[in-house]
Amino acid sequence: MKKKYFFFDIDGTLTNKQTGEIVPSAKETIRKLKEKEHFVAIASGRAYYKVVDFAKEMGIDNIVANGGAAIAVNNELVINEPLNKEKAVKLCHQAKELGYGVLIAFDDSINVFMNDETFINQVGYRKEPTRYFYDSKKSYEDIKDIYKIYIAVSQEEEHLLTLKDTIGHIRFVDSYLTFQHDKKDEGIEKMIHYIDGDNSEVVVFGDDYNDLVMFKDKWTCIAMGNGCEELKEKANFVTKESINDGIQYACQYFGWIEK
Question: Tell me: the pLDDT tens digits for 38-55?
Answer without folding.
Answer: 999 999 999 999 999 999
